[in-house]
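In full, the data.
>
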Amino acid sequence: MRSVAIAVLLVGSILLAGCSGTAPQSKTLKVIAAGSLLAPFAEAEQEFEASHPGVDVQIEGHGSIQVIRQVTDLGRSADVIAVADESLIPDLMYRPMKNSSRNYTDWYQPISTNEMVIAYTNKSRYHEEIRQDNWYRILARPDVRLGFSNPMLDAAGYRSLMVLQLAEEEYREPMLFETIVTDHFPSTITVSSGEGVTTITLPEIMRPSDDKVVIRDGSIYLLSLLSAGGIDYAIEYRSVAEGMNLSYVTLPPSIHLGSAEYADRYRDVTVILGFPRFATIGSERNGLPVVYAVTIPANAPNPDLAREFIGYIANESAKGRPGWPAPLPEGAVS
């Protein structure tokens, strides 16, 4: 009987060992993403987890500059970095990690594009009047409150300034940028022109002096204010406005930063960030078509799983899903 009992125990041990060997290993995939990707990535999280048992995708959102700084300045661990401006990755991450000869990353993959719009609700002042041919005049009215994100932290912020400056030139309204932006900041925002380029130089602190302009750390943080009537209009990405079922005014392609055909026009505007930290890594943000991009930090805990997630995101982005940034144009370099 004793030998039988031992045999049973041995068989049981083998079966348990076999079961433990086939059980899915639990892993956490940490994704730090631009705020405008939070809603699409929340969908992707559920779908990816369903096809990858044992994987917990954790997504955290910030303004695009802050996304990268989580890794480069704060030393946090991440598997995937996703930003709304592809140029931020080489500018801020193609440099050695602390106490290492390796760069934070040496590559990135473009995944989608977008364009800027003027979002509003039926609570917005003059919402029944605003159109594509008069939006800039509506925003310039003294009683209209405009929101955009902090250009020191978020790509949508410096793109908002570019949109307004491009509009000033497009509509030949020489005081437009001053009326909407610079008149409402105690610290000096300078605008200078030379060699065909208009340069907007920002102070270290972007704090409005009155309630004409409202700034938040990321563009998505303006949405609750907009819905509650705390601001009348917000400069947002089109995918965000559509995903939130907001009304919005589309802008001409020469202004909205969403057309590769107008890339030369967008380069006519540059924003120089006033944050001292950028002195060593480049403070210029040049006008470029909006392109989202992803990368994997060199010290990512789960690089293989991160590559799978990026492949999934790239495939889904190419489908043009509702509420997601638009697919890259045909023939776009990746």
In short: Residues 2-22 form the longest helix (21 residues).
